[in-house]
Amino acid sequence: MSDKQNHINTLWAELKTTLKLNVDYARLTAAEKLTLLLTTVTFALIAFVMISLFLFFLSIAIVRCIATGVGMIWAYFIMCGFYMVLLGVVVAFRKQLIVNPISRFVSRLFFNP
User: What pLDDT was estimated at residue 109?
Assistant: First the structure.
């Protein structure tokens, strides 16, 4: 009986150790993936701000160039129309341009080893 009890105790100790190691591995994996996700979001926000500033100054420069031919007010209307068309394209293709890449990134991040 003692030998059987010793095997059960050893099995129980190994099971507890294995479970503890699996929990630690899951926590480390979650921390790694969360770090990667937050890094990507931070980079995307910084890129968004920089691209927005670039487009703002580029738009002002284009308006100034267009204004020499059609006047300042019409140049702003033309630039506004361009951005409205661009917004329409983004809304029309939002699934292909926004939803699918984000869902692929998140699923690859959390479901691939």
Answer: 84
Q: Quick: pLDDT tens for 61-110.
A: 999 999 999 999 999 999 999 999 999 999 999 999 999 998 898 888 88
Contact 63, 75 (CB under 8 A): yes
The pTM for the full model equals: 0.69
Q: Cα separations (Å) of 48 from 16, 39, 51, 54, 113?
A: 47, 14, 5, 10, 29
**Contact predicate 109/37, CB 8 Å:** yes
Q: In the block, which residue shows the tokens 């029309």?
A: 92
Identity at 28, one-letter amino acid code: L
Token couple for 102: 């984000």
Spatial CB neighbours of 36, under 8 Å, sequence gap ≥ 6: 109
In this structure, the dihedral spanned by the alpha carbons of residues 87, 92, 98 and 101, taken in order and rounded to 10 degrees, is: -140
The alpha carbon of 76 is separated from its chain's Cα centroid by a whole number of angstroms, namely 33
The amino acid sitting at 103 is S
